[in-house]
Amino acid sequence: MISIRAHLLSTLLPAFICISIAAGFSIYFSSKAEYLARLDSELANIAIDLRFIKTDPGPGRDPDREPERNPERGNPRYRNRNEQPTRLNANRLAGATAQLQNTLFTNLSAEVYCEVWIGNRGINLKTDNLNGGKIIHPVAFSDAPFFYNTTLDNGLPVRAWAARFPIMMREKQAPKVILAVSRAGVDDALARLARNLIGGGLAACLLFSGLLIFTLHISLRPLKVLGEQAATMDAESLHERFSEQSAPADIRPIVERLNNLMAKLEESFARERRFSGDLAHELRTPLAAIRTTAEVALKWPEQSTPDDFQEIHNLAFGLQQTLDSLMLLARMESATAELQTETVRPANIAEECVALHTGTAKEARIRLQTELNPEIEFNTDPRLLRIMMTNFISNAIEYAPAESTVNILVGEEGSLFLCENDAPNLTEEDLNHLFERMWRKDAARTESGHAGLGLSIAKACADSLNLELDASLKKSRLRIRLRIRNT
Predict the structure, then answer these.
(1) 145: nearest Cα among 182, 172, 180, 119
(2) Of 336, 11, 38, 292, which Cα lies nearest the Cα of 183?
(3) How far is it, in rounded angstroms, from Cα 266 to Cα 349?
(4) Sites in the chain below the pLDDT cut of 50
(5) Looking at residue 84, what is its pLDDT?
(6) What is residue 59's predicted lDDT score, i.e. its pLDDT?
(7) Cα 123 from chain centroid?
(8) Cα–Cα–Cα angle for 269, 274, 277, nearest 5°?
(9) Torsional class of 470: left (φ above 0), alpha (ψ -120 to 50), beta (otherwise)
(10) What are the backbone dihedrals phi and psi of residue 205, each rounded to the nearest 5 degrees, phi first?
(11) Domain tally for the chain?
(12) What pLDDT is stored for residue 366 in this prediction?
């Protein structure tokens, strides 16, 4: 799996590069638009100075109409300029053309290029700085001026202003005018800006990469320290805990959960050690009895009786039961048991288990009282359910006082099975150990016929069947309840 450092680098660095590129394009094109706007303003001012753009004629005056004397009526009248104009004679045209050419040559600076076409007369006027060349003109002209980028014949880039304009000559088509100024300075400035943006962007990306690597190294150092501390822990240092105060707030929940895990591991190891000691104690006594009886039989065979061999048989049978219980418990806890589920009625299985323990209950002077609901059924493994109920009932008969009652219920209080018996010696603290392996309240372990594995096996079976098993103590009566786990 990719590391956190590599993941952050592969995510943040491309994002920063994309943001830098977008910012660079934004700066470049906004600067370009500003430079061109300055050139456009310069060209518009030149056009105004040359009267290529009409100015405001003043209030109350129509710029598209001019007074003209009517010789027949003697009063001035206005004639629309868009009407068919009268043609100028050749002398007046030549004079007007000479006046326009003189204006171009006299009023324009050497940095401004200008070209005028009088289309229907075939007249083309140019400024001297064009050196006989021409300005590449747009495909179409209109009365509204517009700006565009073009080049001269010599390849010089220029910013051009183009429009038709009315002059004193009354032509069918208004002359076409192009004004242009060099764009070389703007292009050089934009080229420098592009180089600066590219160089600055690369430098910023390198600087950001180094800063990001350094920051990640510093930020992830607590995780490295945490991993190194975890690597030094073993079964003998489970009592140690990770420091939550020195951990950053982001990983403090992880440290807290690791400490909880360490506490659970410490408790599990302590339980395993107790189990090993209890198991050795459980096995040592019957093995010692078997060995002693066998040695006596070997040394004085004539004094051996069938009771001695019966005693050996009983002890060996008890050992076998203990080992079988341990193997079953190991299978349940390692989830290797194969479940064979089917639809069962808990009342039927409880009735069978009660029948098996009726004789034992009579010998112990225990009354078995049952309330079984036959209508309840669910899908489960009947073999494991039978093991659990058997262990509950046998445990209740074993530890309940004489002349007491053991209640066995199915379908009461929302439970699948409930076993209740008197337990005057149990306390609330004992409930935490009730399902531990080989735990018994009695101090004398070897005198009992049980190894203390029944409730542990029942708990493992309940976990395998996804059932909820709990124990409670109410008025010195122990209640062990089995029910379907809420999901």
Answers:
(1) 180
(2) 38
(3) 39
(4) 54-89, 168-169, 443-448
(5) 39
(6) 44
(7) 74
(8) 125
(9) beta
(10) -65, -40
(11) 1
(12) 92
Q: Could you read off the pLDDT of 406-456 as tens digits, one per residue? A: 999 998 777 889 999 998 888 888 888 787 776 766 544 444 455 567 787
Asked whether 78 and 66 are in contact (CB, 8 A), the reply is: yes
Distances (CA, A) of 387 to 165, 340, 455: 109, 14, 10
**Residues making up the chain, counted from first to last:** 487
Closest CA to 466 of 348, 377, 384, 346: 384
In a domain, 390, yes or no: yes
Identify the helix (H) or strand (E) that includes residue 196. Answer: helix 184-219
Separate counts of helices (H) and strands (E) for the chain = 10, 14
Q: Which two tokens stand for residue 184?
A: 């070389």
Bridge-based pairing state of the strands 405-410 and 367-372: parallel
- The per-residue DSSP string of 435-472 comes to TSTT--S-S--TTSS--S-HHHHHHHHHHHTTEEEEEE
> Does residue 349 fall inside a structural domain?
yes
Q: What is the chain's Cα-based Rg? A: 53
Range of the domain at 378: 338-484
d(CA 136, CA 158): 10
Query: What pLDDT score was predicted for residue 33?
Result: 93
* Residue indicated by tokens 């009786």: 305
For position 121, what pLDDT does the model report? 53
pLDDT value of residue 88:
44
Q: Is residue 381 part of a domain?
A: yes
CA distance 327 to 141: 101
Instruction: Tell me if 400 sits within 8 A of 425, measured CB to CB.
Output: no
- Write the CATH number for 380: 3.30.565.10
Cα(360)–Cα(354) distance, integer angstroms: 10
Residues 197, 27: contact at Cβ < 8 Å?
Answer: yes
pLDDT in tens, 448-473: 455 567 787 788 888 888 888 889 98
Is 426 a member of any domain?
A: yes
Contacts of 224 (CB under 8 A, 6+ apart): none
pLDDT tens per residue across span 20-68: 999 999 999 999 999 999 999 999 888 887 766 544 444 444 444 444 4
Crossing angle of helices 306-333 and 252-299, rounded to 10°:
160
Q: Could you give the CA distance from residue 240 to residue 297 in angstroms, rounded to a whole number?
A: 54
Q: Which two tokens stand for residue 241?
A: 């805990």
